[in-house]
Write a structure and sequence with these properties.
alpha+beta
Length: about 80
């Protein structure tokens, strides 16, 4: 969970949407962190809605940390 969380935080901070889209093959422990995609896929909807005309998205991590070994990270997109 920690490796996946660090990967996601870095990809979001870099605005690397292509890497985020390929999470299943690029993220460490993706199959463990998200064995099914229903908790990850809504990020794509939010990214699409927040995407500016130039394709850029500003993402601020507003909640982070872990609870019983699971990441609690949440982003505010703008």
């Amino acid at each position: 969970s920690q490796e996946f969380d660090a990967w996601a935080a870095e990809a979001m901070a870099d605005g690397d949407i292509d890497t985020l889209l390929r999470f299943a093959s690029t993220a460490p422990n993706a199959a463990v962190a998200h064995p099914r995609t229903e908790h990850w896929a809504p990020l794509y909807v939010a990214l699409g809605a927040a995407c500016g005309s130039d394709g850029a998205v500003r993402a601020d991590s507003v909640i982070d940390g872990f609870w019983y070994g699971l990441s609690k990270r949440s982003w505010q997109l703008g």
